[in-house]
User: Which sequence fits this backbone?
């Protein structure tokens, strides 16, 4: 009997988490900031294609064209991600919907984790859409210079960039939860993250070690260093630790709040 009660309790918790995720997904569909953020990220490769056709024409090659998109994504991903995050979190505090939500038999950790899952789902789909547009543009604009190797390189680098950007954005979740209804602290934080990630593209050899240890510069350094090397794994480790600490801090801060 005790075992069956434990199984039923676990199933009940899974069902409650499912209900929370469904509710958060409905909120995301109505979130104008999320739609705007997706359009902004997708606009980068589209505008790069238009610029190549109308202005640059034959003056630049595939590598330069792709590097421009990568640099713009380095700035745009954390900033847009931060705006969507604050709209997801701060609106709950401003509209005072948290109390009603948490009056249901829902744990605070499950609620915040569901927010994080929906946030990641939006980010992954938006980054994937931008990546597909970049690959399509490379194929259309540079048919002779675009092959399987180039496809795997672009897809691998943009996927890695997106995942590391999300991990290193998790401390902003901690800040957003701690500041409740205040938008600006989390937004200022993600702007700082974007600056550091952009600076990581300019790191010299002498600064590779500290840049690999700093999670935000590590996002860009991981693309510059040899894949599979020591600096590469150090970049991945620092980003993963940053994400774990950010999520743990957010859960702890939310659990202690007096709502």
Assistant:
């Amino acid at each position: 009997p005790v075992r069956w009660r434990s199984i039923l309790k676990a199933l009940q918790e899974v069902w409650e988490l499912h209900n929370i995720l469904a509710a958060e997904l409905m909120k995301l569909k109505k979130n104008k900031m999320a739609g705007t953020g997706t359009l902004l990220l997708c606009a980068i490769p589209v505008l790069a294609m238009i610029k190549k056709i109308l202005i640059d024409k034959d003056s630049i090659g595939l590598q330069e064209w792709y590097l421009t998109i990568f640099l713009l994504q380095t700035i745009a991903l954390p900033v847009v991600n931060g705006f969507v995050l604050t709209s997801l979190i701060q609106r709950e505090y401003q509209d005072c919907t948290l109390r009603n939500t948490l009056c249901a038999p829902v744990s605070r950790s499950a609620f915040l984790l569901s927010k994080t899952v929906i946030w990641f789902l939006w980010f992954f789909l938006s980054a994937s859409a931008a990546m597909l547009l970049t690959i399509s543009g490379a194929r259309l604009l540079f048919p002779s210079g675009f092959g399987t190797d180039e496809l795997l390189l672009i897809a691998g680098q943009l996927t890695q960039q997106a995942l590391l950007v999300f991990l290193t954005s998790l401390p902003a979740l901690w800040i957003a939860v701690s500041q409740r209804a205040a938008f600006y602290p989390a937004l200022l934080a993600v702007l700082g993250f974007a600056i550091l990630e952009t600076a990581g593209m300019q790191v010299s050899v002498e600064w590779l070690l500290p840049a690999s240890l700093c999670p935000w510069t590590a996002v860009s350094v991981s693309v510059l260093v040899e894949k599979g090397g020591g600096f590469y794994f150090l970049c991945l480790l620092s980003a993963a630790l940053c994400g774990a600490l950010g999520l743990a801090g957010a859960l702890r801060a939310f659990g202690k709040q007096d709502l």
